[in-house]
Amino acid sequence: MEERNLRKTRQGVVVSSKMNKTIVVASKFKEKHPIYGKFVSKTKKFYAHDEQDDCHVGDTVLIMETRPLSKLKRWRVVKVVERAK
């Protein structure tokens, strides 16, 4: 049997859950500036598939890369790390 490669995972905060079975997750990271060498905070948004529709704005979630599910969705929710307070 052929082994499947490891898939990318990201952890981020849900910024929108208004769509059916879809959430928008914002993942923050730091990147070194090419000229000045200073670390700059950046944010990337990912559209993720939420089958149970149980994620809400403010939740911290773990998402995993998957096959394309729609025009923008290439990620799916693995688990909810922390619920919004």
What does this protein look like?
With 85 residues, the chain is mostly beta strands. Helix content is 0%, strand content 55%. The protein contains no helices and 5 strands. It has strands at 9-19, 22-32, 39-49, 60-65, 75-82. Strands 1-2-3-5-4 form a 5-stranded mixed barrel. The chain is globular. The termini are far apart.
Name some characteristics of this structure.
5 strands; 5-stranded mixed barrel; mainly beta; 85 residues; globular; single chain
Topology overview:
Elements: E1 9-19, E2 22-32, E3 39-49, E4 60-65, E5 75-82
Parallel strand pairs: 3-5
Antiparallel strand pairs: 1-2, 1-4, 2-3, 4-5
In short:
The chain is mainly beta and 85 residues long. It contains no helices and five strands.
Question: How many E strands?
Answer: 5
Number of alpha- plus pi-helical segments: 0
Binned, the helix content reads under 10%
Strand line-up across the major sheet: 1-2-3-5-4
Mean pLDDT: 95
